[in-house]
Amino acid sequence: MRKLIVMITALLMTVLLQACGSAGAAGTGGTGYNSLGGSAGTGSDAAPTTTFTGFAVVQVDGALSGKVVAFFSEDMDPATINAQNFTVTGPDQKPIAGKVEYIGVTAVYTPDQRFTAETAYTATLSDQVRSASGVPMAQAKVFHFTTPDPSALTGVLVRVASSAPAANEMNVPLNAGVNATFNQVMDPATVNESTFRVLDPSGASVAGNVHYTGVTASFVPVVPLSPNTTYRAVVSSAVSNLAGVNMDNDQHWSFTTGTSMAVQPQVVYTAPLQSDSNISANSTVVVDFNEAMDTNTVNTSNIVVANSQGWPVAGSVTYAAQSAVFTPDAPLSPSETYTVSVSGNVASAGGTQMGQAYSWTFTTAAFGGAVAPTVVFTNPSQYQSSVWTNATVSVAFSAVIDPVTLNTGTFQVTDQAGNPVAGSVSYLGNVAIFTPASVLAYGTQYTVTLTSGITGVDGAALVSYSWSFTTTMPM
Predict the structure, then answer these.
(1) pTM over the 0.70 mark
(2) Residues 294, 213 within the same domain
């Protein structure tokens, strides 16, 4: 069972939006969002939904310039994505004039004026927005965000946080796709076949299509790759975040294919588990896959939660790395049995479909709210010395954690001078692992901090927790 790599690098002071909550800001351009992924599919008879909504701002001469964005679950009718159906209002509830564009499966709102700092705004998508097949949204989508103080927008560069296949990975299946996950929400107009390419050994571009949603871009080759061949993936510095800030340089990495095709992707873990009971009504549903998936297929059409009468639960599906999260629009009903169905149309990043549907059931508790998770085990342990410099840091929790909330912003390792250690966070079940990007320094005390940004799948937050350990001196 492969470990779930949570490929999201948190930004400085980023705050996740809730359905009716507020947002924070971060980095070179501040970004707020209420989900870390999501994807779109082809048209259907089902009402379209939003899989991701957010905003980003950047400081310009002491003021805040930015955009508001909404990703949809499927292709939409561009004629309905306009300034009448996508509006933004300030605290006075008066509409703010702006321009609306439809790019890919994304509506992008750009105001004609600068945003005001530390101010609450409301964005609304009306129920007149329709899918490409003419089906309207079931109801209007309303979300809120709060702009930051300009002083909070400091020093985080736009970059590719992680990739799949990883750099220098070997024996990559011939039908594999390539995922690039950014550390910020990107402008969808800049993430396309000209800015995200895969090159063969001669430097020629591989034919393929690029899908982008939230923070993850997927390159899907038109035909399988060649065996025993080293390819180079390149993300151009022409890509920019939602606030218009470009990467400083092109980013690239290489991987080498094997000789075989990938097998069909599989579901390797779920939360709740099959037949679980006493599940909190505030819970989300997590589905972990054994490989990177095509974000274009992980959506509310292919992942459905239904009650005992067969009625689907309204909600949204988000995707980060190899994990899909279904978040209901409202708390689940008490003492109710729900069935989760993952369609066989869900496909890997290389385009291989599951083929066979996967489903399971769970039952909610009669009453009661969410229970905060706790830390039950750490390795290294508190005050442990003589820790090898090539060690990883592991944490076991008392409950299943929402993988979207586990990242290098909420799982932090710092040296004795307070400098953050670069690395990545992986997670499966109830165990999280921090893997440093390079070996630790000899004879150095490190502090691990788990923030309250980590939550269980039922939404309850961890109480902040920290401990220290010291690496061994060289012999």
Answers:
(1) no
(2) no
